[in-house]
Write a structure and sequence with these properties.
- The complex is a heterodimer of chains A (278) and B (242).
- Chain A has 278 residues and is mainly α.
- Helices cover 73% and strands 1% of the residues of chain A.
- Chain A has 13 helices and two strands; from the N terminus they run ααααβααααβααααα.
- In chain A, strands 1-2 form a two-stranded antiparallel sheet.
- In chain B, 38% of the residues lie in helices and 24% in strands.
- Chain B has helices at 43-50, 73-79, 96-104, 111-124, 140-153, 170-185, 197-203, 221-224, 228-235, 237-241, and strands spanning 5-14, 17-27, 32-36, 58-63, 66-67, 81-83, 158-162, 189-193, 206-211, 214-219.
- In chain B, α3 (96-104) crosses α4 and α3 (96-104) runs parallel beside α5.
- The model of chain B has no long low-confidence stretch (mean pLDDT 85).
- Classes of the chains: A mainly alpha (278), B alpha/beta (242).
- The A-B interface holds A 139-141, 144-145, 147-148, 151-152, 154-164, 216 and B 51, 53, 72-75, 77-78, 82-83, 85, 89-94, 98, 101-103, 105-106, 109-111, 114, 135, 150-151, 154.
C-alpha cells in the first residue's frame, strides 16, 4: 500500500492525503460483492481496483481541471475521503456505521483461510507484484514523465509532457493499486466499517513508511514499512508502557522523532544510506 | 514561402498593464530572429503567448500553417516549437541524462532510442561528461546548456531561447554564440530573446525591437543600430557614440 501511494506522491509528486478513499473502496467493493452477490473476493478485488481507479481518475480530472496544486491538492483529497466516510456512514446498503462482518471459514476459493500463513503468502505476492510494477515504471516512458511532472510542471509541459494527463494517470493507477490493499484488509480482519477502512490511520502508516524509507524509489517504501511495523511490535512489548493508550501515544512519539531525524539527515530516505557511504 | 512562425496582431493585457499590443512578426525556415527591448517590454510574455503558457486576448499565432493560438504548451512542443526558460528550470533531482531523455521521449517512445538521442544531444551541447550529475549540481552555464539540450531533444523545427547568454562570462558568451550557430546550421530556426546585445546582434539575421509591448522597429542588425527610435528606446548613448 505504501508502494501504491508512492506511485503518485513519490514519483509524480502528487501528494494525496485521501488514499483512505481508495483503500475503503477496495475493502467495500470486494466485501459487498461477496455478501450481496456471492462473487468471490478474488474477483471482487479487481472490481474494487477498477472502481477505485475510475473514482481516482474522475477526482483527478476534476481537481486538476481547476489547477489545484500542492498543499491544496492534498487538502482536497483529504476532504474527498471525509465525504466518502460520510456517505458510507449513512448508506444502509453497506450497513452504515455498523460495518460488515465476514464469517471466518475455510474457503480458499473465496479468499478465506483459517490459518494465517496463506494470508502472508498472498500479501507477499502482492508486495512482489507492486515492487515489479514500481521497477517497470522507473524504466518506462510513463515513469520518466511522472518524474518530470514532480520536478517542475512548467518545464515538463515545455518538454512536451501533458501534465494534466499524466497527473491524472498517476492518481488513477495509484488508487487502483491501493484498493487491492483494502480488499486484503477486509479478507484478513473479516470486519470492515467506515471507522476502520475510511479513516486516515492506514494512510498515515504508509506515508511514514514511504518518507522514512525513501519516496520515489521502488524499495524505499518497503524498507520503511518493514521498519515501522517491526518498531510497532517492539514498542508494544516495552515494559514501561502500560495499557493500549500509552502504547499508542508512545509509539506515535517515537515515529515522529524518527521521521524528523530521517528527514533532516537523510532527506532521500533510508535507501540513500548506502549511496552516501559509497 | 509561408513562414514557419507567424505571429499576427497579438495583444495581451495583465489587468491594466498592456503587456503586448498588436505584435506581428514572422520567423522563416532556417532563420535566426532576435527580440530585443528594455526590461518589461513584453519579450517573455511574447514567448509565453507563442508557446501556449498564456492565451492572447486578441490575435493569432500560426505555426507551420496550423493555428496554435492558446494551445497547451505540451502540444506546441509536440508540434515542433521548443523553448528554454529565462530562469532555468532544471529537473533538480534528475540527472542530466534523465532530463534530456524526457524531452527525447516525446518523439521516440522507446527508452533505448530516447537514451541514444539524449546522448547525441548532450554530446552536441558539451554536456556528455555531466550525464550522471543531478540538475541541481550544475553551474549557470551548464544549466542553460541543459535547458537547450532538453528543448533540442524534442527535435523542434523552431527553438525559442529566452536569455541564454545573460549572466554568462564573456568567454562563455562566445561559446554560446557558436552553439546557437551550430544548432541553426543543423536546420533549426531560432527565435532568441537576449539582453546581451553582442550575442543577439552577431547571431540574428533579423531583429524585432519591442518597447512597451509594441514593435517599434524590425530589420537587419546593422540597420537597427543606427535607427534613432531604437537608440532612444533601448541602446542608449553608448551605442550612438560608437
Amino acid at each position: 500500500m505504501a508502494l501504491a501511494w508512492n506511485l503518485a506522491a513519490g514519483y509524480a509528486g502528487q501528494f494525496s492525503l485521501g488514499h483512505s478513499l481508495f483503500y475503503g473502496i477496495g475493502a467495500y467493493a470486494s466485501t459487498v460483492l461477496y455478501v450481496r452477490l456471492g462473487l468471490t473476493p478474488w474477483a471482487g478485488m479487481f472490481v474494487g481496483a477498477l472502481l477505485a481507479g475510475v473514482v481516482g481518475t474522475l477526482l483527478a480530472l476534476g481537481v486538476y481541471r481547476y489547477k489545484v496544486h500542492g498543499i491544496f491538492f492534498a487538502l482536497v483529497t483529504l476532504g474527498a475521503a471525509e465525504v466518502a466516510k460520510g456517505i458510507a456512514d449513512n448508506w444502509a446498503f453497506i450497513k452504515g456505521p455498523v460495518g460488515i462482518l465476514l464469517t471466518m471459514q475455510d474457503a480458499p476459493r473465496d479468499f478465506f483461510f483459517l490459518r494465517r500463513e496463506p494470508y502472508y503468502y498472498v500479501a507477499l505476492a502482492m508486495l512482489v507484484v507492486m515492487i515489479l510494477v514500481s521497477l517497470a515504471l522507473e524504466r518506462s516512458r510513463l515513469g520518466q514523465f511522472f518524474l518530470a511532472v514532480r520536478e517542475d510542471e512548467q518545464a515538463a509541459e515545455a518538454s512536451g509532457v501533458d501534465t494534466y494527463r499524466y497527473k491524472t494517470v498517476a492518481i488513477g493507477l495509484s488508487a487502483a493499486l491501493t484498493a487491492f490493499a483494502g480488499s486484503f484488509y477486509a479478507q484478513f480482519y473479516l470486519y470492515i466499517s467506515p471507522d476502520t477502512v475510511l479513516v486516515f490511520e492506514p494512510q498515515l502508516t504508509m506515508m511514514l513508511g514511504t518518507m522514512v524509507g525513501g519516496a520515489g524509489t521502488a524499495f524505499g517504501p518497503v524498507i520503511g514499512s518493514i521498519l515501522f511495523s517491526g518498531l510497532g511490535e517492539a514498542l508494544r512489548n516495552l515494559p514501561f508502557l502500560e495499557g493500549t493508550r500509552q502504547v499508542v501515544i508512545g509509539s506515535k512519539m517515537v515515529y515522529a522523532v524518527l521521521l524528523i531525524v530521517v528527514l533532516i539527515y537523510l532527506p532521500g530516505g533510508l535507501v540513500t544510506l548506502g549511496q552516501k557511504r559509497a | 514561402m509561408a513562414a514557419l512562425l507567424d505571429v499576427q496582431s497579438v495583444s495581451k493585457a495583465f489587468g491594466g498593464l498592456q503587456a503586448l499590443s498588436s505584435v506581428s512578426f514572422t520567423v522563416g525556415a532556417g532563420e535566426i530572429v532576435g527580440i530585443i527591448g528594455p526590461n518589461g517590454a513584453g519579450k517573455t510574455t511574447l514567448f509565453n503567448v507563442v508557446t501556449g503558457v498564456y492565451a492572447p486576448d486578441r490575435g493569432r499565432v500560426v505555426f507551420q500553417g496550423e493555428d496554435i493560438t492558446g494551445a497547451a504548451p505540451h502540444r506546441v512542443c509536440k508540434l515542433g516549437a521548443a523553448r528554454t526558460f529565462q530562469v532555468s528550470k532544471p529537473f533538480a533531482a534528475l540527472t542530466v541524462l534523465q532530463t534530456v531523455r524526457i524531452g527525447a521521449l516525446n518523439r521516440i517512445p522507446d527508452m533505448a532510442g530516447a537514451t541514444a538521442k539524449a546522448l547525441e544531444v548532450l554530446e552536441l551541447m558539451g554536456l556528455a561528461a555531466k550525464r550522471d550529475e543531478p540538475g541541481r549540481a550544475l553551474t549557470v552555464m551548464e544549466r542553460k546548456r541543459l535547458e537547450m539540450a532538453r528543448a533540442l531533444a524534442t527535435q523542434p523545427s523552431l527553438l525559442l531561447l529566452d536569455e541564454v547568454a545573460a549572466g554568462l562570462r564573456p568567454n562563455e558568451i562566445q561559446d554560446m554564440i557558436a552553439l546557437v550557430r551550430g544548432i541553426a546550421a543543423g536546420g533549426v530556426s531560432v527565435l532568441i530573446i537576449e539582453h546581451v546585445l553582442e550575442a543577439v546582434l552577431r547571431l540574428s539575421g533579423r531583429i524585432v525591437v519591442l518597447n512597451h509591448g509594441e514593435v517599434i522597429a524590425q530589420g537587419r542588425p546593422d540597420e537597427l543600430v543606427s535607427d534613432p527610435r531604437v537608440i532612444d528606446a533601448y541602446l542608449g548613448e553608448a551605442y550612438s557614440l560608437a
